[in-house]
Amino acid sequence: MRLILAATDEALAVAGGLIVLFGWKVAPFIFAHHFIGWFQLSQVNYMEHYGLLRQKGPNGRYQRVEPRHSWNTNHILSNLMTFHIQRHSDHHANPMRSYQALRNFDDLPSLPSGYPAMFVLTAIPPLWFRVMNPKALAWAGGDTTKLHTKLHVADGSAGMSPVSQTPS
Q: Which of 40, 53, 112, 146 is the 20 to 30 Å CA partner of 16?
């Protein structure tokens, strides 16, 4: 928690310093920068964990986070652009390992493309569901109880949606 507050303090200090240096005319750019950063982080969290469920134990607590609870992608260019953050499963297994040292595992859930293409897919929900629901269902071996979302795959491609929506 202290690290989160420190990062917030740093961001506020930088924003305040920019406003002091350049005046209030810089405020819209600061707001846009913070919004885009928040939006991309939200997209990354969504795509890194989409559909993958940690089971609840008999004591009501969720199982420990394991590498299989996140999607990986091992595309060289986008991995270099993002300091290997796409090897997210290794981050789950070894949270203290630096991003540059994260490893890829072939037997874990894998996104169909690198992050730039996945950002496009997350921005178009029907396309996202058409691509990712079959992948999530295949990863779960067809068992929807192992998934965080309800996947409606009636004819193999159409009618897919998350829990909060109805089949199309």
A: 40
